[in-house]
Specification:
Helices cover 81% and strands 0% of the residues. The chain has 75 residues and is an all-alpha fold. It folds into two domains: 34 residues; 41 residues. The protein is flat, with a radius of gyration of 19 Å. The termini are far apart.
């Protein structure tokens, strides 16, 4: 158990790089399997899902989000 903790402690300063490599590898597999434009659509839907999930976590309702998006367009 302490060995795993030591490894995690040593890798902690590089967690951004490690996550970046994992993300890049995942995106490469998706692009190779589905093509660039289909992968782009998947990435857009993932981003929209992440954004809406973040709003739910912040307890913002859909009407609050809608009002914030369209508030400056009325005048």
């Amino acid at each position: 158990m302490s060995t795993i903790k030591e490894i995690l402690d040593r890798l902690s300063p590089y967690k951004g790089r490690i996550l970046g490599v994992i993300f890049g590898f995942f995106m490469a597999i998706v692009i190779l399997n589905y093509g660039f434009f289909r992968s782009l659509v998947i990435a857009i839907f993932i981003f929209i899902g992440f954004y809406l999930g973040k709003q739910v976590d912040n307890r913002e309702t859909l009407s609050d989000l809608w009002e914030r998006l369209w508030r400056n367009r009325n005048g």
